[in-house]
């Protein structure tokens, strides 16, 4: 799958439970995961904070 296809599939699923802006923030975090040194900030994204 291309990166655009992965994002589209993620958004299809995420929009079932999140507003678009929240889903995009979660996707951005996950997309940058290889560069992260911790999950700080991730749990609050999932909690909808």
Question: Can you give a write-up of this model?
Answer:
There is one protein chain. The chain has three helices and no strands. With 49 residues, it is an all-alpha fold. It has one domain. Helix 1 crosses helix 2.
Question: How is the secondary structure organized here?
Answer:
Layout lengths: L2 H12 L5 H12 L10 H6 L2
Helix pairs in contact: 1-2
Keywords:
single chain, 49 residues, 3 helices, 61% helix
Beta-strand content: under 5%
Helix content: 55-70%
Could you state the oligomeric state of the chains shown?
Answer: single chain
Rounded mean pLDDT is 91
Give the C-alpha Rg: 11 Å
Instruction: Tell me the overall shape.
Output: flat
- Regions with pLDDT < 50 over 5+ consecutive residues? none
Annotation, overall tally of beta strands: 0
Kindly summarize this structure in a few lines.
By secondary structure, the chain is an all-alpha fold. The chain is built from 3 helices and no strands.
């Amino acid at each position: 799958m291309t990166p655009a296809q992965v994002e589209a599939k993620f958004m299809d699923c995420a929009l079932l439970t999140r507003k678009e802006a929240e889903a995009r923030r979660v996707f951005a975090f996950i997309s940058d995961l290889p560069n992260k040194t911790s999950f700080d900030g991730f749990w609050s994204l999932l909690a909808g904070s």
